[in-house]
Amino acid sequence: MSAQAQYEYREGLRNVHDAIFEYLGKNGIAIDAEGVYHLFTWQQGASVPSSVKFDIAPIGKNATAVEFSSDQIEDCWEGLDRADVRKKLEEIVGKFTIVDKKQPEPSEKQRFDEAIATMKMSFPRIHEKLVALWGTPQGEVFLDGLIVDDRGGRQGFPRDAMGALLFLQRVHFQKFGTFKKVDPWDVVKFGKLMK
């Protein structure tokens, strides 16, 4: 390999290395000097490898490996004007940012529908009774009895079903209030106990 070809390859390698930092930084991904490295070391008289693998490890994120062909690297010796290199750099950024994009919180309606669907699929008889008693004093008592085991020795519900029941209980209370007779003096006593 000629000295000029070696120079161009080294410059291309450096430009790709620097561009990785630049693209990650521009997209808000924290990375330090040791976060990007490649396993290629130049040996005198050695031929050019077919590709070079870069290991990229931004701060607080899992590392990922990205491979560039030697042709891509050589073509970057004067700058990153190749579209396929830029595309690959954008893919690198995408790998780190896609997991960080927060999914929108489901609406109350969606959460309600999910809770109902969970109960219908996992516990159809309980679902039927909930539907029949919804909005009534018996519905409140039924929900409370499912959540708090006042008889003792029950197995309990799986996590998703218990979450659904707790959500349904909250919605029932918000929508209909409580049907229980509450002695105002019990509220006062409870308030004193909490202090």
Summarize it.
This protein is mainly α. It is built from 8 helices and 3 strands; from the N terminus they run αβββααααααα.
Unreliable runs? 190-195
**Beta fraction of the residues?**
5-15%
Largest sheet: number of strands, sense, barrel closure: 3 strands, antiparallel
Globular, elongated, flat, extended or rod-shaped: what is the shape? rod-shaped
Number of domains: 2
User: What's the Cα radius of gyration?
Assistant: 31 Å
Work out the number of β strands: 3
What is the helix fraction of residues, given as a range? Answer: 55-70%
- How far from one another are the termini? 83 Å
Supply the helix-strand structural class.
mainly alpha
User: Helix tally?
Assistant: 8
Mean pLDDT: 79
Strand order of the largest sheet: 1-2-3
H/E series, N to C? HEEEHHHHHHH
Please give a structural write-up.
By secondary structure, the chain is mainly α. Helices cover 56% and strands 8% of the residues. The protein folds into two domains: 3-97, no CATH class; 108-194, no CATH class. The protein has helices spanning 3-26, 70-74, 83-97, 108-122, 124-133, 137-147, 159-176, 184-194; strands spanning 36-38, 51-56, 64-69. The radius of gyration is 31 Å and the shape is rod-shaped. It starts with a helix and ends with a helix.
List the main descriptive attributes of the protein structure presented here.
3 strands, 2 domains, 3-stranded antiparallel sheet, disordered C terminus, 8 helices, mainly alpha, 195 residues
Layout: helices, strands, pairs:
Elements: H1 3-26, E1 36-38, E2 51-56, E3 64-69, H2 70-74, H3 83-97, H4 108-122, H5 124-133, H6 137-147, H7 159-176, H8 184-194
Antiparallel strand pairs: 1-2, 2-3
